[in-house]
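fyi for ur records
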Amino acid sequence: MTNISLNPVAIRELVNTTGIVLGRIKYSETSVIARIYTRHFGLQSYLLKGVRSSKSKIKMNLLGHLSLVEIVVYHSERSQLQHLKQIRSAYNYTSIPFDVRKSSIALFLNEILNKSIIEVEPSPNLFDFIVNTIQIFDVMEEHFSDFHLLFMLQLSKHLGFYPRENFTAFQPVFDLKEGLFRAGVPNHPDFINTPLSENFFRLLNTGFNEMAGLKISTETRRQLLETLITYYGLHLPSFKDIKSHEVLKVVLG
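which gave:
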C-alpha cells in the first residue's frame, strides 16, 4: 500500500477538468491511485475508492495507459492526494489498442511522459500538445513508425530543451549536451556525427503529416531513438531507466 497522508481539513473545491492517464497503482484491496496529467492542475494523484470492486461503476479500462478522460474532482492545493468523484472517457481510441505496433509505441510514449513530467504546475499548451498528437497518432493508417521520434523532439520544445536547428555542411556534429550543431567534435563523448546527425536534423524539420518522406532505415531509427533517450537524460534529471524502448526495437524492427 502506498503511504500517502490525507489532509481532511484541507479546503477543497469541486472542479471539472480533462486529463490523460499516465499510470495507476494499487492502494488497497478495492482502491487505486491514478496518476493523471490534467489541463487545469498539471500532474496529480487521484484516489479512486472501490474501483477494484466488482460493484464499481467505474471501469478499470478508463485508467489504461494514455486514456483521455473527463473528470470531476475535489481539488485541494494543500493535499498530495486528490479525490476523484466522477470519470468518463473523453476520447475512444480507434486503433491504438488494436495494433501491436501502435500499442507498443503508446506504451513507450507513456513511459517518456512519466519520466519527463514531474511538475505539479499546469501547462495548458503542453497538455493540448499531448492530447492532440496522440489523437493524430490514433487515426494514422500508415507511415507512423517514426512517430515516437518526432513526438520526443516536439515534446522537448515544451520542456525547454529543443535542439537548435543550425545544421550545415560546416556544422555537422550535434552536441547532445549543448543541444546544437558544431563544426568539430566537442571535448566530451555526448555527440553524434554525420550521417546520423543529418538524419537527426531531418527529423527536426519534419511534421507529423510528413513522415512518409523520411524513409529512415530500421538501424537508423534505432540509433536516433538511443540518441533521443541520451539527449533527454542529459537535460532531465528525472529521466532514468527507460525500458520500453527495447520492445520497440523488436516490434518496429
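The first helix runs from residue 100 to 116. thats all i got for now
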